[in-house]
């Protein structure tokens, strides 16, 4: 039995022969995971210190401003534009370490280190045993995650909620059901796409019922506790947005995100130049924020129904963009003097690392996934559901490579599994993996010229001031 397959008999979390945790690797394996977490934290702090003068701009400024409002006034920000999860983390950092962007970046680094640790625990829960530290190491050094700690963006913090919720969902106890629900609520407060944890939990419960690992009353009780705990966590924010926006909202951007991906000018990606036109054309006249959000969502749905062929074409582009090469946001920020001028060798090294990291990880994850020899388990189904629902969600809205960062820990776990001897892989899996590789190779090949040109521009003497459009 392979390390991954060991999870089949060790996932119910109740103790006893069928519920024991995988013990392969023992304390030595945990020491390696903790060491990887320490490396991840140090890397993030070193890179943040090297960019200590980098400002907060665009989305970063929105999070920073709301964190300052929380810190000074002890209340939510003046609108429902962003959920309060990440601003709460930043406000806590300002209260503890002082009111500075460096404090925020330390908090990001700590979140990144915690994510590395949780990734290793997830890998152990999926039966990787002594190889679990490889998954942690991949997340520790992943360039996109390291840079996100400088950017004052919630990527690592959001991924912490998701991975922690997965670990809680796999345990069949009422206490862990409450914990999982609270973690799901925290994820939704951090980013509204935390809603992906709801179908993920439902799939886990359906699996348990189908395999008769739990009775209907037991699953119903745990589902009720999950929902109750999530509702308790969400209640203050939803009550607040009802008062200031017109109805309960996780944020006020969801409808507009749908409209960005489904309109006559849509390209499948975020086009900053179309923002004002979309607002004036489809949202103008809204009586409040909730009405504006609803108008945008209805306009997007109507356009998709009236233009099914074009919408289907855009859907392929959105998937390709979500699973695409990274670099668009990094190049746009660097070209606005965000990091200041850097040596050509530094720019080239970061550029190559950013471009190459995700394709290498995805291919390795596909190899690990097809190497699993036993059937589905609750945790494997949960991971597959998260990947699938995230993809569907961005088909409904729009695709950007930065949105795949929360999936990186899951891909790292799959990549850390032992790769198969290919002649032993069942042909349906081989065909599925081959199809995915062909599609992604097409996407990456299509995206590479634009990103390579951006990298060439950044390497010029005035590259840090070249102002490349997002």
General description of the model:
The protein contains 19 helices and no strands. By secondary structure, it is mainly α. It is globular and about 55 Å long.
Strands, total number: 0
Radius of gyration: 22 Å
Low-confidence stretches: 1-25
Instruction: Give the N-to-C terminal Cα separation.
Output: 48 Å
Average per-residue pLDDT, rounded, comes to: 90
What structural class is derived from the secondary structure elements?
Answer: mainly alpha
Could you state the order of secondary-structure elements as H and E?
HHHHHHHHHHHHHHHHHHH
Question: Can you summarize the main beta sheet?
Answer: none
Q: Tell me roughly what share of residues is in helical segments.
A: 55-70%
The best one-word shape is globular
Q: So how many helices?
A: 19
Please give the oligomerization state of what you see. Answer: single chain
Strand content: under 5%
């Amino acid at each position: 039995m392979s390390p991954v397959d060991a999870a089949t008999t060790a996932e119910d979390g109740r103790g006893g022969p069928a519920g024991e945790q995988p013990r392969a690797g023992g304390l030595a394996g945990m020491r390696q995971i903790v060491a990887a977490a320490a490396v991840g934290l140090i890397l993030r702090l070193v890179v943040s210190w090297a960019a200590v003068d980098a400002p907060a701009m665009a989305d970063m400024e929105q999070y920073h401003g709301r964190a300052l409002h929380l810190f000074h006034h002890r209340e939510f920000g003046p609108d429902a534009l962003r959920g309060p999860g990440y601003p709460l983390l930043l406000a806590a950092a300002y209260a503890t370490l002082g009111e500075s962007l460096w404090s925020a970046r330390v908090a990001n680094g700590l979140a990144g280190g915690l994510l590395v640790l949780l990734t290793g625990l997830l890998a152990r829960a999926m039966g990787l045993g002594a190889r679990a530290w490889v998954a942690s190491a991949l997340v520790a050094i992943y360039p996109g995650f390291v840079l996100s700690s400088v950017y004052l963006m919630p990527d690592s913090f959001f991924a912490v909620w998701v991975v922690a919720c997965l670990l809680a969902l796999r345990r069949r106890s009422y206490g862990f059901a409450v914990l999982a629900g609270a973690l799901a609520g925290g994820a939704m407060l951090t980013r509204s796409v935390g809603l992906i944890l709801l179908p993920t939990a439902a799939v886990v419960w359906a699996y348990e019922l189908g395999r008769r690992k739990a009775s209907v009353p037991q699953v119903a009780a745990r589902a009720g506790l999950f929902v109750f705990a999530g509702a308790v966590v969400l209640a203050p924010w939803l009550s607040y947005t009802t008062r200031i926006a017109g109805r309960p909202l996780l944020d006020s951007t969801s409808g507009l995100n749908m409209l960005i991906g489904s309109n006559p000018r849509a390209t499948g990606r975020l086009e900053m130049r179309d923002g004002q036109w979309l607002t004036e054309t489809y949202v103008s006249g809204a009586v409040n924020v909730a009405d504006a959000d609803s108008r945008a969502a209805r306009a997007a749905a109507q356009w998709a129904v009236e233009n099914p062929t074009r919408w289907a074409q855009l859907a392929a582009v959105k998937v390709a963009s979500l699973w695409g090469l990274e670099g668009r946001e990094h190049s746009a920020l660097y070209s606005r003097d965000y990091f200041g001028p850097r040596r050509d060798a530094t720019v080239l090294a970061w550029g190559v690392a950013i471009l190459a990291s995700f394709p290498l990880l995805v291919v390795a994850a596909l190899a690990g996934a097809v190497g699993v020899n036993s059937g589905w388990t609750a945790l494997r189904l949960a991971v597959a559901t998260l990947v699938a629902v995230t993809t569907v969600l961005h088909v409904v809205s729009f695709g950007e490579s930065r949105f795949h960062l929360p999936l990186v820990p899951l891909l790292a776990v799959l990549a850390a599994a032992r790769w198969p001897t290919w002649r032993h892989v069942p042909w349906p899996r081989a065909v599925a993996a081959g199809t995915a590789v062909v599609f992604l190779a097409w996407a990456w090949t299509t995206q590479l010229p634009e990103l390579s040109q951006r990298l060439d521009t950044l390497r010029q003497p005035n590259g840090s001031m070249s102002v490349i459009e997002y």
